[in-house]
Fold:
Amino acid sequence: MKRRLPRRERALSDLEACVLGVVWRDGPCTAYAVRRELASSSTPRWSDSAGSIYPVLDRLEALGLVAATARRWGERGKKEFATTAAGAGRLRAWVPQVTAAEVCGPTYDPIRTRFCFLAVLPPSGRRAFLADAARSTKETLDRLRGHARRRMRPDDFEALSIHASICELEGRLRWLGRMRKVVTARRS
Structure:
């Protein structure tokens, strides 16, 4: 009898893996609880919309990575999701994959993206953009620092990951300061 080779598993998207991770860490939990967690994340990359979370959970369930249990909840009921052994295994395989350029390269930064097109604004608009970006970044940084102080425990890796967001925003502020000097010196 021929030995079957294992079927190649499709790679999980980062959103799928993140949702799987939230269910693993917080489960059993509802899709609403996953949405709440993503909405409060210091990584605004994740959409917390029902239109993205529910289909992701459906895909994870179809792949056998989470199992859903129906619970009575008012008139409608709800589903609670828990990670399966296969799901925990896929999560363990996903976490250490950090060698790809898209994982270790620069993060998406909408301020940096807008900066590429700063020439469309008059000099006063450019200066205002940089001042607004710095002010908003400082406000977000202050909020994250307060959040990190309240949650800091050596075994709370999510809270510790907030420090990456803090470092990123501190770097953005330094960059914005340098760009303000360059843009102000340019005069055109």
Summary: The helical segments are 14-26, 31-39, 50-62, 85-94, 101-104, 110-115, 123-151, 157-186. The chain has two domains: 14-100, 106-186. The mean pLDDT is 84. Strands lie at 66-71, 78-83.
